Amino acid sequence: xxxxxxxxxxxxxxxxxxxxxxxxxxxxxxxxxxxxxxxxxxxxxxxxxxxxxxxxxxxxxxxxxxxxxxxxxxxxxxxxxxxxxxxxxxxxxxxxxxxxxxxxxxxxxxxxxxxxxxxxxxxxxxxxxxxxxxxxxxxxxxxxxxxxxxxxxxxxxxxxxxxxxxxxxxxxxxxxxxxxxxxxxxxxxxxxxxxxxxxxxxxxxxxxxxxxxxxxxxxxxxxxxxxxxxxxxxxxxxxxxxxxxxxxxxxxxxxxxxxxxxxxxxxxxxxxxxxxxxxxxxxxxxxxxxxxxxxxxxxxxxxxxxxxxxxxxxxxxxxxxxxxxxxxxxxxxxxxxxxxxxxxxxxxxxxxxxxxxxxxxxxxxxxxxxxxxxxxxxxxxxxxxxxxxxxxxxxxxxxxxxxxxxxxxxxxxxxxxxxxxxxxxxxxxxxxxxxxxxxxxxxxxxxxxxxxxxxxxxxxxxxxxxxxxxxxxxxxxxxxxxxxxxxxxxxxxxxxxxxxxxxxxxxxxxxxxxxxxxxxxxxxxxxxxxxxxxxxxxxxxxxxxxxxxxxxxxxxxxxxxxxxxxxxxxxxxxxxxxxxxxxxxxxxxxxxxxxxxxxxxxxxxxxxxxxxxxxxxxxxxxxxxxxxxxxxxxxxxxxxxxxxxxxxxxxxxxxxxxxxxxxxxxxxxxxxxxxxxxxxxxxxxxxxxxxxxxxxxxxxxxxxxxxxxxxxxxxxxxxxxxxxxxxxxxxxxxxxxxxxxxxxxxxxxxxxxxxxxxxxxxxxxxxxxxxxxxxxxxxxxxxxxxxxxxxxxxxxxxxxxxxxxxxxxxxxxxxxxxxxxxxxxxxxxxxxxxxxxxxxxxxx
Length: 844
Known about the structure:
Elements: E1 4-10, H1 15-25, E2 30-32, E3 38-39, H2 43-48, E4 56-62, H3 64-77, E5 81-89, E6 92-93, H4 103-114, E7 124-128, H5 156-174, H6 190-198, H7 207-218, H8 226-233, H9 238-252, H10 254-263, H11 274-281, H12 284-294, H13 296-299, H14 321-327, H15 338-341, E8 344-345, H16 358-374, E9 379-382, H17 387-400, E10 406-409, H18 418-435, E11 439-442, H19 453-465, E12 471-473, H20 477-484, E13 489-492, H21 499-513, H22 519-528, H23 533-545, H24 555-567, E14 575-578, H25 591-605, H26 607-613, E15 626-631, H27 638-649, E16 653-656, H28 658-661, H29 668-683, E17 686-689, H30 705-723, E18 727-732, H31 740-744, E19 748-751, H32 757-767, H33 777-786, H34 791-807, H35 814-828, H36 839-843
Parallel strand pairs: 1-2, 1-3, 1-4, 4-5, 5-7, 9-12, 9-13, 10-11, 11-12, 15-18, 15-19, 16-17, 17-18
Antiparallel strand pairs: 5-6, 8-10, 14-16
Helix pairs in contact: 5-7, 5-10, 9-10, 11-12, 16-17, 18-19, 21-22, 21-23, 23-24, 25-27, 29-30, 32-33, 32-34, 34-35
């Protein structure tokens, strides 16, 4: 056969036209006229050079509006000319073929030339070249899939499914009418359309492939195959399973994509439509009706971009891409779905590695076993004030069984609308059903309150509607039970970890830092820092990270510093955090007052034994905390004593900032007070309220609206003090201004008197460092006798004297203190006191 003369022309220089010309030049059965791609302006000369009686093909690349008129002229002049239009739309060449060598395009060109004598009226064809959705480009590169079927040697069921699909498509392709001279996928004649409407062919599917597929589905050897998991997990009918397989076919073999394009009479389409797939399995209307009646394919989101109803008959039907990845063996394919991982935590919950006792390991195994037994029929609630412990136990049990739970964090639905919540819930249920993993919903996080009740209810109801159940971790089971409605549930509301387990957690965390704590020390830290198990893991990691920075520090100090940092991490700015620097033995007080301060320390330190072990907690529904009032003149050491107590206990101080707490808006003051007390309770810190009379003043007769709300604030503060279980220290200079009802609620009231002469001498000696002065004993005696001021004023005098001495480039002497004392007395509006300064110092 003589080569066909082919001219390739474009409306402008274009890489697509150049590629087509190169492909034609490489063929043995075609001859590229002029041996290059021409512009349309050069065609007249090139066509006239060809013998008019010789068959010739013209390929026009460009916008249809620019090429049609030009081609019509030559079609009228030359009866042996055929024209193939390659349309360019929006500067993108689109072709419905994936063959990067344009084999199908050139075969179409040969068919046009071959039929030019017998079908003179069919000398024009249009084609669009597409680069979308992974289709082959016109760059001459070789496709990865270039007709080679995938290999599934280790998946017998998938092999049988591929053969069944191949049989179904082969039967459909063989039954296609193609004897009327049309080119299927590009052009169709009137006769073909007429015959397709008049035909009533039956589908004779290969029974051998069908039997092999059914046998593979029923074989016990394939019970772990993802296809079996989908069919059995979603309770698909045989019809639904086959529709899913046909929709899945384009992912299995590129040849199936070509078959769908052929059967749809459009080679630009690479996947089947619902109408086509139904027709492959029987009568389309009956098949569609059965699919809609079951609803499993839609409910489990097996198809892409399908909501609650089947798509139109001519819409592409693809298997959901994330489900496709999982079916093809990608274990995390379902989890990669954005609608799944936006609600799912992918890393383990902390605390698992700190549960080292056999008792906790046994409890974790027992808990997981109970959950797995019950979660098939009912929801399982794990409630209480320590949700972190439940999370750690579930992680421990899952790790022992090598099962990773699906961790859903309910707080993340706060920014989603209800439709997005429902869609995510369906896909999370799909993940749980196909993988068999335990579904755990954490509703106990602090930010979980941001999630609306409607969103939470939609999440739970959708999971229930999909036939799944879950473990719910919560703080307030009553709210969750209300959200569940009539759904059956089982609840465990006890403390997940006993006191001994919490102590063991602290010992394990300290051991991770290289600190060997005694049981007594760990018990004291458990009482001092009310941290959860995940907080203790954070403490361990923080202390380990601080090793390089604090290499010279003791490991125990690093561990303690980390405890304080974690305990006060989320403290609000309504209170000032203070690290106590004073020791309790530095406070100068009469002996009986010092004994009361030591007693306060004992009440805090021994509270776990008295309240828990000795069961005094049962007799104290309120007032379990330690509250103390320090009153006395300014500067007598009230705040210093509070800091000394906190240092002896190893805790921080939260000093109430009245400027931030007290608000002009009704109700805000009470909210701010509650926030400070809650922060102190959770961080294990002590509360210090300086000038307490500003908050705890006497309630007055209501003469105006302001009086009413002021009294409400005082009443609420009294109630909150009683409910507080930590250490609260209040200081005031005016005890008489405090409300009598408040005084009744105090466990300790300590009077801080003005210091006498021996006390003042001790204060003077403490306030002046030994290396900074040149005072003898007689000077200290004189200062204590002559200057009758409290410790706070004495400290001001010594600081001022230190700067005066530093300016004179000498150590502190009696003359410097005398000068500073005169300034302090003047500040207080008191007459100065004369000191006996030695003549040598006076002369100097």
